[in-house]
């Protein structure tokens, strides 16, 4: 039987769900700027359609952009929503 090794906790109790996580949208050749902007505005709190268009331009120019950084649970939720809407997503990254 194998030995169980316990990994020490990296945060303090009550510090959230695993620290900060980044939701990253990647550039692709099948989504329009308008679709990306509308989708970001629809699912990410605080992003307006105008800000969504700015982010779409960053994605186009840089190949990717962080659209949300925060706790793991909401990050996973937003990642799933954006992916379901057809955006090309990078894997969630721990910040």
Instruction: Please give the count of helices.
Output: 3
Q: Which term fits the overall shape?
A: globular
Low-confidence stretches: 7-15
Strand residues, percent: 15-25%
Distance between the termini: 36 Å
Helical percentage? 40-55%
In short:
This protein has 3 helices and 4 strands. By secondary structure, the chain is of the alpha+beta class.
Entry keywords:
95 residues
Structure description:
- This protein is of the alpha+beta class and 95 residues long.
- Helices cover 40% and strands 20% of the residues.
- The protein contains three helices and four strands; from the N terminus they run βααβαββ.
- It has helices at 33-43, 49-62, 72-84, and strands at residues 20-26, 64-71, 88-89, 93-94.
- Strands 1, 2, 3 and 4 form a four-stranded antiparallel sheet that branches.
- α1 packs across α2.
- The longest helix has 14 residues, at 49-62.
- The chain is globular and about 35 Å long.
- Mean pLDDT is 88; it is low at 7-15.
Task: Give the arrangement of secondary structure elements.
Blueprint: E1 20-26, H1 33-43, H2 49-62, E2 64-71, H3 72-84, E3 88-89, E4 93-94
Helix pairs in contact: 1-2
């Amino acid at each position: 039987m194998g030995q169980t090794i316990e990994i020490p906790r990296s945060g303090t109790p009550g510090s959230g769900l695993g620290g900060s996580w980044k939701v990253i949208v990647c550039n692709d050749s099948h989504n329009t700027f308008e679709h990306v902007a509308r989708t970001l505005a629809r699912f990410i709190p605080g992003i307006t359609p105008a800000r969504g268009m700015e982010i779409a331009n960053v994605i186009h120019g840089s190949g990717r952009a962080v659209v949300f950084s925060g706790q793991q649970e909401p990050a996973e939720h937003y990642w799933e929503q954006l992916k379901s809407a057809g955006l090309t997503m990078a894997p969630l990254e721990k910040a």
